[in-house]
Amino acid sequence: MPVPITDDLAIPDAELRWRFSRSSGPGGQGVNTTDSRVELVFDLAGTKALPPALVERALARLGTRATDGTVVIAASEFRSQLRNREAALERLAELLRRAIAAPPPSRRPTKPSKGQKRRRLEDKKRRGTVKRLRRDTTD
User: Ranges of Basic residues compositional bias (predicted)?
Assistant: First the structure.
């Protein structure tokens, strides 16, 4: 089942690698026998599921999170391997969604209005008055 990133982008299962190991934490007697910890490995630099422009943007935004173009997601918060697999898939999808999102529009700089300047100066004056009244005038 492919991992949906956006409405028109999904990562096929063939590009995902799974590793399983024993998890620390709660689990009772089964904690020593069940490989419930999950590591999901995705080769972002070598993927064919995303356009090259989005891959470059994602690699730039992820920075050190992507080691040699590879993203590793670990999940061990649940006792069951299946739930940890689902959690890892959700985390990968959200991580990639944020990494490939279009940058926000650039801010057009504006100057403060006359009213804002006046209110700022009044607040400064009021604050100075409060501090002046707190002073100890006796020496």
Answer: 108-119, 126-139
Determine contact, residues 91/65, Cβ cutoff 8 Å.
no
Domain locations in the chain as residue ranges: 3-100
- Angle between helix axes 52-62 and 81-100 (nearest 10 degrees) is 100
Please name every residue paired with 42 in a beta bridge, in sequence order, or none if there are none: 16, 71
Contact by Cβ (8 Å): 96, 65: no
DSSP assignment string, 52-120: HHHHHHHHHHHGGGEETTEEEEEE-SSSSHHHHHHHHHHHHHHHHHHHHSPPPPPPPP-PPPHHHHHHH
pLDDT in tens, 93-107: 999 999 999 989 999
Topology of domain 3-100 in CATH is Double Stranded RNA Binding Domain (3.30.160)
For the chain, how many residues are written? Answer: 139
